[in-house]
Design a protein that fits this description.
Elements (H helix, E strand, L loop, with lengths): L7 E6 L4 H11 L6 E7 L5 H8 L3 E4 L8 H14 L4 E4 L8 H6 L4 E5 L11 H8 L3 E8 L9 E8 L4 H8 L8 H6 L11
Parallel strand pairs: 1-2, 1-4, 2-3, 4-5
Antiparallel strand pairs: 5-6, 6-7
Length: about 200
């Protein structure tokens, strides 16, 4: 049962959910003052769903291939979030761009974990693009979501010196297991102290 005053968090995923696992752990051990309410995937067989079901947190599948157009799909996601009384939405590997409908419904309360130091390297394959460009420091950013891709105000970021083996480590182990991201998880995408909840 959630503690009184702790915001309820809806986490949206599309894949493995390694960042989702870290966020849930941070919420449960008190590093993030929030309560995981539900995990929603737009991909029916996303590996992260099995992981979160084992933890007893509710899950929902809102398949974007079955509900068209985009706004209809997002209305279905919003219905689930509202039924669960979600205060904050966290995108943890959610591979869909949000429309103005979703952004407006949770204005100032949607956060994304992006695997690069924004504003550099927005969009897909950010880690690989950064390393191919030759950056000396790589990292990730937690930012408020707005109508543009990987654009809203940053709330936290972390970085480390890039090494020649980084691409293999990032792609082989997954972002959620990369050692430089441990500190950002504690503040990450559902840290209620970084912004006010309506």
């Amino acid at each position: 049962m959630p503690e009184i005053g702790r915001p309820r968090v809806g986490i949206l995923i599309s894949g493995r959910g390694s960042n989702m696992v870290a966020l849930i752990a941070a919420m449960r051990d008190g590093r993030v003052p929030a309560e995981p309410a539900i995990v929603i995937s737009n991909v029916p067989d996303a590996a992260g769903l099995a992981t979160v079901r084992e933890s007893g947190i509710e899950t929902a599948i809102v398949d974007h291939t079955a509900i068209k157009p985009r706004e209809a799909h997002e209305r279905a996601v919003l219905d689930v979030l509202k039924r669960q009384r979600v205060d904050i939405v966290c995108l943890a590997g959610y591979m869909r761009r949000l429309s103005p409908l979703m952004v407006e419904a949770f204005r100032g309360r949607v956060l994304n974990i992006h695997p690069a130091l924004l504003p550099s390297f927005p969009g897909l394959d950010a880690q690989e693009a950064a390393l191919h460009y030759g950056v000396k420091v790589t990292g990730c950013t937690v930012h408020l979501v707005d109508e543009q891709v990987d654009h809203g105000p940053a709330r936290a970021d972390t970085g480390q010196h890039a090494r020649s083996d980084e691409t293999q480590r990032l792609h082989g182990a997954g972002l959620g297991h990369h050692p430089s991201f441990g500190s950002i998880r504690a503040t990450a995408s559902c840290d209620a102290s970084t912004f006010s909840v309506r």
